[in-house]
Input
Amino acid sequence: MVRRFQSEDQPMTCIHCQGRMEKGTAPFHVDRNGYHLLLDTIPAWVCQQCGEVYFEEAEVDSIQSLIRTMDIQLERVPISV
Output
């Protein structure tokens, strides 16, 4: 999820539980087109109450770019049925 972040003087709160968000890392995984992509430690905002994770726009863009690259590379792999 991409969300515009609040200013430094206002603490960021979780939209699900209103808990306090802190910078940290979180895993990201996707099952797509016959492959599994798992990234262990992506920078993220993590809710200290419920564990909800928000990725900033730069991280989302990087993840989407990686997925597009994987899709293109996998088109070149011959698959026998």
In short: Helices lie at 57-75. Residues 1-81 form a domain with the Ubiquitin-like (UB roll) fold (CATH 3.10.20.860). The chain has a mean pLDDT of 88. Residues 31 and 37 are 6 Å apart (CA to CA).
